[in-house]
């Protein structure tokens, strides 16, 4: 049942969002990656995930908050169908941090979709990045870090609405980057944030 539902849901997400995908100085690749994007809507993860080529999509897990995606049977089903990696923000422990959990879950084969702002920003302005992306890059320097700018999805699923509004949106996927030698946390996070902003202007 799930095998049939997932392709249908992925297609439905693309139709509802009207999403077009631009690969800018980057090509689809099934190597391990961390796609990091701006965050304006609860649909961001599903629309970005569904816009990836199937071969890449099946090995990519969006990271999301368990309190939202376990708040009802429909959301719980979608979380399972889209293979979300759910983080319980109320049970963060030093010995079992979200970063350690992500690294453990992806092993040597899966990729992630993360939102470094830490939460949704419906205004569309890109806020400062939190430190999670830096720690992922530091602990797994082999992973490609791929910036993504998601445009117009906050209007597809306006705040407070239960059902999406069909509308054209655009996903721009940029050139991979890595943590550079000698680069500190603030320098890296600002460079990563700038990489996402550049896609907005390209």
Element layout with pairings:
Layout: H1 2-17, E1 20-23, E2 33-37, H2 44-51, H3 54-57, E3 60-65, H4 66-69, H5 73-81, E4 85-87, H6 98-106, E5 111-114, H7 132-139, E6 144-151, H8 153-156, E7 170-173, H9 185-201
Parallel strand pairs: 1-7, 2-5, 2-6, 3-4, 3-5
Antiparallel strand pairs: 6-7
Instruction: Give the amount of beta strand, in percent.
Output: 15-25%
CATH architecture: 3-Layer(aba) Sandwich
The CATH H-level superfamily is: Glycerol-3-phosphate (1)-acyltransferase
CATH class bucket: Alpha Beta
Low-confidence stretches: 161-166
SSE pattern, N- to C-terminal: HEEHHEHHEHEHEHEH
* Gyration radius, rounded: 16 Å
H/I helix tally: 9
CATH topology: Glycerol-3-phosphate (1)-acyltransferase
Q: What is the structural class?
A: alpha/beta
**What does the largest sheet look like?**
7 strands, mixed
Instruction: Report the mean per-residue pLDDT as an integer.
Output: 84
> Domains counted in the coordinates: how many?
1
Using DSSP, what is the number of strands? 7
Q: Helicity level, as a percent range?
A: 25-40%
- Spatial strand arrangement across the major sheet: 1-7-6-2-5-3-4
């Amino acid at each position: 049942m799930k095998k049939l539902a997932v392709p249908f849901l992925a297609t439905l997400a693309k139709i509802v969002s009207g999403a077009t995908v631009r690969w800018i100085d980057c090509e689809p690749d099934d190597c391990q990656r961390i796609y990091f994007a701006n965050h304006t809507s609860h649909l961001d993860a599903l629309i970005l995930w569904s816009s990836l080529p199937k071969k890449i999509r099946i090995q990519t897990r969006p990271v999301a908050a368990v309190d939202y995606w376990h708040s009802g049977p429909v959301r719980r089903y979608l979380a399972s169908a889209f293979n979300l990696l759910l983080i319980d923000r109320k049970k963060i422990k030093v010995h079992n941090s979200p970063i350690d959990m992500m690294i453990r879950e992806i092993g040597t084969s899966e990729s992630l979709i993360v939102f470094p702002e830490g939460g949704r920003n419906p205004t569309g302005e890109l806020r400062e990045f939190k430190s999670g992306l830096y720690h992922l890059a530091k602990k797994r320097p082999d992973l490609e870090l791929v910036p993504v700018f998601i445009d117009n999805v906050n209007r597809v699923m306006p705040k407070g609405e239960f059902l999406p509004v069909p509308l054209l949106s655009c996903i721009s996927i940029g050139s991979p980057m890595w943590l550079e030698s000698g680069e500190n946390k603030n320098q890296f996070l600002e460079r990563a944030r700038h990489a996402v902003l550049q896609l907005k202007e390209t």
